[in-house]
Structures are given as structure tokens and as C-alpha cells.
Write a structure and sequence with these properties.
four-stranded parallel beta sheet, 16 helices, Glutathione S-transferase Yfyf (Class Pi), Chain A, domain 2, alpha/beta, about 10% strand, Rossmann fold, 2 domains
Length: about 300
């Protein structure tokens, strides 16, 4: 399903994934708050498990499909479309959904997870939900503190839009527009820049940390060169690499970046009039409040 074809629903099953119950709690918290404010109900799946995004596919192919399939089966029982905020989780769920179109594979997985799964879930990336015209209209109508004058680099990362034939979130994999449309609806100015879908190093943070620093530096420096005040993302791993490692990147490359990296849900919350405390901006390493204050936005 292409992002332009995504249907708006008022109620979604919700799969937060491990990061949003751990290192990215501010993403989970802000997602729930803005959904409530915009009339969207999220029903968290009961007894969900890790989707295996960081390692299962390197350990066991069967495990890498069974873990996301188990969560898809839980969602299927609700009869609701499934909203997934984490780009990595979304990628694994969509990959499993794609593979299980094969009946033999589906039968095998049903033996593993206990049966009864028909692979009929509509799995939707959270940004896609807010980029529908219905949602954009709701956002525009609800904006109480427009982010006027704030230049935003929308950063999708490599997982939200790839592989395009599997995730089907954007008709243009090199220049997706979901987050850009959201930024515009908030009153901000999305900047045109070429690194919006480049890899930040993701899983290389432990295996090859110097490579991760180099890739993340390229993204941050390019966003700064494009005139961005802030970088907006929808991926917990991207946010972590670009935010928590930014001081280390500045030291290595002898360049002051000072680029706050916020989740798009936090940006929506701020524009709806929610406070930095409510959006838990204090959890980030690169401070954003002074920038927002300097522009008269909070």
C-alpha cells in the first residue's frame, strides 16, 4: 500500500516494539499523547514480543519470520489495522508479511506460532497515518503553536522506505514526502536536502563504531549545510545514533553541529501546544529548548 493510498482509521492496534518501552520511551509517550489529541485511539497489543529486528535474521531465518508473525497474529485477532512507530520493527513486520504470502511458508509459521494466522493484517508505519490528507487536515486545525521559522530536515533513514516493494511507504524511495508534509502542516519549513534516506550506521554502532560515526556525521553535516535548525525522524535507532553520539562526532571531526534530533511525534505535540516537558525533550542529549525559545516557539 503506497503512502498516498493509506486509509485513515480512528482506531489502530499498536505495536510499540522494544525500543519504545526502553531507550525511546519519549517516542512512545509523545505518540500516545498526540494520537489522543487528534482523535486516534491506539490499542497496544497484549503480550507482544520482540520482532527480532536487531539480530534474529542473522541467527535464524525461521526465527526472523516467526517473531514478527506472532505479533501480526495478535493484531489480526483484533480486526484492526496495525500501527507501528519504529521503522526497524515496521521493516521486519512487513518483510514477514511479504514472505508469508507463500502458503507453504505460512503453513510452516503457523506450526511454530500455534496456528490460526491468515496473514491478513494491514500494517502501517505511524508516519504514514499522519501523512494522510485526513490527518493533515486534523493537524492543521489543531495547531495552536505553529513552528513558524523552524527549518526542519526530515530524516527517514534507510529502513522506513526500503525495500520499496515490501514496505511500500513511498512512491519515491529517494525523496519521500511523508515527514515533509507533516512538517509543513505544523507551520515549519522542510529543507530540501539529499541525505534524507541515507543510512546512519544503524546496527554498526557496536560492530563498527567508526563507520557509524562517519555515516552519521555525513547526515548531520549535510542537514546543517542545507540550513536545518532541527532534524526530525521516525526511527529510534537513527535518533539514538544521531543524538547520543553527536558530541563524539563533533570531537572526531572537529566541527560543532549542535543539531537537535527529535521524533516527528514530539514536533507535532509542540505544535499542538504541548510543553517540552510533556514531549520529554529533556531525554535527548542535544538540547532543543534553547533553539525553540530563540525562535519564540515555546
Amino acid at each position: 500500500m503506497k503512502s498516498s493510498d493509506t486509509t485513515f482509521h480512528s482506531t489502530y492496534a499498536y505495536y510499540p516494539g522494544c525500543s519504545l518501552h526502553g531507550t525511546a520511551r519519549e517516542y512512545d509517550h509523545s505518540s500516545r499523547l498526540i494520537c489522543r489529541a487528534l482523535g486516534i485511539e491506539l490499542q497496544e497489543l497484549k503480550d507482544w514480543v520482540c520482532c527480532g529486528s536487531s539480530s534474529a535474521h542473522n541467527v535464524s531465518h525461521l526465527l526472523s519470520v516467526a517473531l514478527p508473525a506472532y505479533n501480526l497474529a495478535l493484531a489480526e485477532k483484533t480486526g484492526l489495522p496495525l500501527a507501528v512507530p519504529c521503522a526497524a520493527c515496521f521493516g521486519r513486520l512487513k518483510a514477514a508479511e511479504h514472505e508469508l504470502k507463500d502458503k507453504k511458508a505460512l503453513d510452516q509459521i503457523n506450526e511454530v506460532i500455534g496456528g490460526g494466522f491468515n496473514n491478513s493484517v494491514e500494517t502501517v508505519a505511524l508516519p504514514s497515518i499522519f501523512a494522510t490528507e485526513d490527518s493533515l487536515q486534523r493537524i492543521r486545525a489543531a495547531v495552536a503553536a505553529p513552528l513558524k521559522g523552524l527549518k526542519v530536515a526530515s530524516y527517514y533513514g534507510c529502513l522506513l522506505v526500503r525495500p520499496p516493494d515490501i514496505v511500500q511507504t513511498s512512491q519515491d524511495v529517494e525523496n519521500p514526502q511523508m515527514l515533509d508534509k507533516i512538517a509543513e502542516a505544523l507551520g515549519a519549513e522542510p529543507v530540501d536536502w539529499p541525505f534524507k534516506t541515507e543510512c546512519c550506521g544503524a546496527y554498526m554502532v557496536l560492530a563498527r563504531p567508526q563507520l557509524m560515526l562517519e555515516l552519521s556525521y555525513r547526515i548531520l553535516s549535510m542537514a546543517k549545510a542545507a540550513g536545518a535548525d532541527i532534524l526530525m525522524t521516525a526511527c529510534p535507532m537513527c535518533q539514538s545514533n544521531l543524538d547520543t553520539r553527536q558530541a563524539e562526532i563533533e570531537t572526531k571531526y572537529h566541527e560543532k553541529l549542535g543539531l537537535p534530533v527529535l521524533y516527528f511525534t514530539q514536533m507535532i505535540g509542540l505544535a499542538l501546544g504541548m510543553s517540552p516537558k510533556e514531549m520529554q525533550l529533556g531525554k535527548h542529549f542535544v538540547e532543543a529548548e534553547q533553539l525553540l525559545k530563540s525562535k519564540g516557539l515555546i
